[in-house]
Design goal:
Blueprint: H1 66-95, E1 104-107, H2 123-126, E2 130-133, H3 154-161, H4 167-170, E3 196-200, E4 211-215, E5 219-224, H5 235-238, H6 241-251, H7 262-266, E6 271-275, H8 293-309, E7 320-323, E8 333-336
Antiparallel strand pairs: 1-2, 3-4, 4-5, 5-6, 7-8
Helix pairs in contact: 1-6
Length: 339
């Protein structure tokens, strides 16, 4: 018997995560798991898709090496497995009679586990898939929007889907995202003033490197709050074939075949400002450029305002301390550390 009551289903997959650090016998991305070989188990409804390293076209932010191409090929295999897994979920929804009245959102938590990717605020680290399917919003089906969106938009989208008025939740929890359902019907006439925000504190407990980010269509400003420390590397990426090859090349003074050096990847300025129209690879930091003082000042103020709205405990870091208790309860202030 089917119960036609509203439901929320959150489905997550291990694919396409790395697993070479914990289960190396299954491959760098567990791409061997379930393939039927001895000790690998067997997934009967999975037809693996395999690529040769020389078939892989690497993105600009990954070293152009055989090891990286081999790494990418393994991840592509697990992406194909996840793709088939998503298909199985959709088939179950269809069999249960829910496909024609269910909002489906497909996304990810972060960018890929390669250099300049996951745990970074660069576009290569924060750009993720965002696919939405609604049986009641069909005007722009299969179309792409140029509007800036983020994971912060998902809660307002779900509230909108269930027709929950904004005043019912904004008084309790201030949400800074927007509903994405209107984008399924019409592309905004003007997106020039759009802005999104991002934050990162840590990936692993020993990787504390808080960052805050504001992005428009043209500019991005990143605040590295712990920039006096080297940028941390997570353990699964550290042991990956791609990064181990980078380390070996660095130690032997070979060409990394990469668009950065390890030194400028590890050590970053407190503020990074990029002109995304003219510098999509985010290589030229304009935060300390006199010609971009006004842009820097404006984005910094808007980022601070967002941190204030979201009650970010790191709003005053790294040079000041937030005081918002006792004497300062009604007038929170950032006080210098040398007071």
């Amino acid at each position: 018997m089917y119960h036609f009551r509203p439901f929320f289903l959150y489905v997550s997959f291990h694919d396409p995560h790395r697993c070479g650090h914990s289960n190396p016998e299954y491959g760098a991305f567990c791409e061997k798991f379930g393939n039927g070989e001895e000790g690998m188990g067997y997934i009967p409804d999975w037809q693996g898709i395999y690529y040769q390293p020389d078939e892989v076209i690497l993105p600009y932010y990954v070293p152009d090496t055989f090891e990286a191409k081999q790494d990418f090929a393994a991840q592509y295999t697990t992406m194909s497995r996840m793709d088939q897994g998503v298909g199985l979920v959709l088939k179950e929804l269809e069999n249960a009679g829910f496909l024609n009245n269910t909002l489906i959102i497909y996304s990810s938590d972060n960018g890929i586990p390669f250099p300049n990717g996951r745990t970074n605020m660069y576009d290569s680290g924060v750009q993720i898939p965002m696919l939405i399917s609604s049986p009641f919003h069909t005007k722009r089906r299969y179309q792409i929007t140029n509007s800036l969106t983020s994971l912060l938009d998902i809660p307002p989208t779900i509230y909108d889907w269930f027709s929950i008025p904004e005043e019912n939740y904004q008084n309790k929890h201030k949400l800074t995202g927007k509903s994405l359902l209107p984008l399924l019907e019409k592309e905004p006439s003007d997106t020039t003033k759009e802005v999104i925000f991002g934050s990162h504190n840590l990936h692993e407990i020993t990787m504390y490197y808080p960052m805050r980010m504001i992005r428009t269509h043209k500019y991005k400003l990143i605040h590295n709050l712990n920039n006096n420390s080297p940028f941390p590397i997570d353990q699964d990426f550290y042991l990956s074939p791609t990064f181990q090859d980078m380390l070996n090349r660095h130690k032997s003074h070979e060409n990394l075949r990469w668009f950065k050096t390890l030194s400028n990847y590890y050590y970053r300025k407190e503020w990074e400002l990029f002109d995304l129209k003219h510098d999509p690879e985010e290589l030229t930091n304009l935060a300390y450029d006199d010609n971009h003082k006004m842009v820097f000042k404006d984005l910094k103020a808007r980022l601070f305002q967002w941190q204030n709205v979201t009650q970010d405990p790191w709003i005053c870091a790294p040079h000041d301390v937030l005081e918002n208790k006792g004497f300062y309860a009604n007038n929170p202030q950032c006080l210098f550390l040398d007071n």
